[in-house]
Specification:
The protein contains 14 helices and 13 strands. By secondary structure, it is α+β, with helices and mostly antiparallel strands.
């Protein structure tokens, strides 16, 4: 049970359920919380505030889960357990997440800890100073237990870098966890802890959230504090979580107070809205292709659920075409040109001769040099125009519903197959992730909500997007879906709950 203290002696069926958030438990289930692993982050913090459990006990339980399961999953690549045990000695009891364990993707700086970006280039790179976002996490009361696995520079929608090795999906360890926030998503799905830092440059929060059966919100451009990036371009930071309210609270605490995008601030969204929405359903990707039948069925089921809740679902035609991908790749390739130039400057050798960058990354460098600066100018003009077009298109509905990915999660190795040419492998990868990059390029918020399951037992998320700055509508809808079709009581086969870890 939770502890030796009086908490378990109380009448706790109602009180504990309320502490975790009533909406997440399915009516008629026996999923009421009886162990620490059952609680979301706000629930754990409340236990600590009530002195029902100590921060050290919560942290030690988390460390035990990681040590018991991570040999199978490979989600945590740089543990900071000793540092965490020092941190718990000075927890501010009034902080929103006082004493709650937390992990961060290995692309955000934490002073004194390595930031590898999943690349051999930064294998021994130790951060001298914490990012602003990291400092905000500490101020919120989190105890940081380590860094999480990711692909090199977050370029792939699967977490299988040469440096950090493949991360394994806890629902089936032969399958991909998605990427690039794969390690963070595994950590939450496996029950190491209830939420974790994640970042998204083309679907990197939403894809692994879908693959691992958890919740993930990508905010609007420039909404958040500087973290893994300055948030000025495609990359934004946020988190993945088991419950909507944890994500909603952390989102409210980590927005950039400078508000460089002049967005309306969003406080803590505490529950669903009574407002009924018009939801545009777009099943085809930007190539005009339908997804795998199991993905299509999952999204159709979500549409039916929305209609049963009183929302209006209308079919809409995707205004984004295949040209989008070409322009998107031009900007990403340009970034890898800069990275390769940095390697050459550092080593005195062409990047391809150093062994510091993976072949897929090097091919992006080649692409970028072939296309030149003109392609970057052209791409930026394209996205400026497309942003206006899509904004006008979305005026006819409140929220857009699409798949997260074109197919269910593939087996490990499918998106890192070295026998394929760069063109064939990139075609495979970008076909798989041909829904989520649109929001990054146009600066819009999007989320993956864990509402479906494939025939072989792998989660399938439903993707929702809204207009610029309208995360509130997305969170309110997520709360409603969480209550209608709960997921927090569902556990992966390789998880703390199923393996009897408290």
């Amino acid at each position: 049970m939770i502890s030796r203290r009086s908490f378990i002696k109380r009448s706790f069926a109602a009180g504990a359920a309320a502490m975790v958030a009533p909406a997440i438990y399915a009516k008629g289930t026996s999923a009421l919380p009886t162990q620490l692993v059952d609680f979301d982050a706000l629930g754990l913090s409340q236990l600590i505030k009530n002195k029902e459990v100590s921060p050290k006990e919560v942290v030690m339980a988390t460390i035990n889960r990681i040590e018991a399961l991570d040999g199978k999953l490979n989600a945590i690549n740089t543990p900071t357990f000793e540092k965490a045990l020092e941190t718990v000695k000075n927890i501010n009891p009034d902080a929103p997440f006082a004493g709650v364990p937390f992990v961060m993707k290995d692309n955000i700086n934490y002073a004194g800890v390595k930031t590898t970006n999943g690349s051999k280039l930064f294998e021994n790179n130790v951060a001298k100073e914490s990012a602003q976002l990291t400092k905000a996490y500490e101020k919120a009361g989190f105890v940081i237990l380590g860094k999480t696995n990711m692909p090199e520079f977050g370029l792939a929608p699967t977490t299988e870098s040469v440096l950090l090795k493949p991360a394994h999906n806890p629902w089936n360890t032969e399958y991909s966890s998605g990427g690039s926030s794969g390690g963070s998503s595994i950590s939450v799905a496996a029950g190491y802890l209830p939420l974790a830092h994640a970042s998204d440059g083309g679907g990197s929060i939403r894809i692994p959230a879908s693959s691992c059966g958890i919740f993930g919100l990508k905010p609007s451009r420039m909404r958040m504090l500087p973290g893994s990036s300055d948030q000025l371009e495609f990359m934004v930071d946020n988190c993945v979580s088991r419950t909507v309210r944890d994500s909603a609270m952390l989102f409210s605490l980590t927005q950039n107070p400078a508000n460089p995008a002049n967005l309306k601030p969003v406080g803590f969204v505490s529950g669903p809205s009574k407002r009924r929405l018009t939801i545009g359903l777009c099943m085809k990707n930007y190539f005009g292709e339908l997804p795998h039948p199991e993905i299509q069925k999952a999204i159709e089921d979500t549409a039916k659920l929305l209609e049963s809740l009183g929302h209006t679902v209308i079919e809409v035609k995707n205004p984004v075409t295949g040209e989008f991908e070409d322009q998107f790749l031009s900007l990403f390739a340009a970034k890898m040109v800069k990275t390769a130039a940095f390697v050459q400057q550092m080593t005195g050798k062409p990047a391809a001769e150093t062994g510091l960058l993976e072949p897929f990354t090097l091919e992006f460098d080649v692409m970028g040099r072939k296309r030149g600066n003109e392609s970057v100018i052209k791409a930026n003009k394209y996205f400026e125009h497309k942003g206006i077009e899509v904004a006008n298109w979305m005026n006819s509905f409140d929220v857009l519903l699409t798949p997260v990915t074109k197919t269910p999660s593939p087996k490990l190795g499918y998106m890192t197959d070295s026998s394929l040419s760069f063109d064939d492998l990139s075609r495979r990868i970008f076909d798989y992730m041909s829904y989520t990059p649109v929001q990054n390029a146009l600066g819009l918020p999007g989320m993956s909500v864990p509402l479906g399951m494939s025939s072989n037992g792998l989660p399938i998320g439903s993707h929702f997007a809204a207009g610029n700055g309208d995360e509130q509508t997305l969170l309110e809808l997520a709360y409603e879906l969480e209550a209608a079709k709960p997921w927090a009581h569902k556990w992966a086969p390789v998880s703390a709950k199923i393996n009897g870890l408290k």
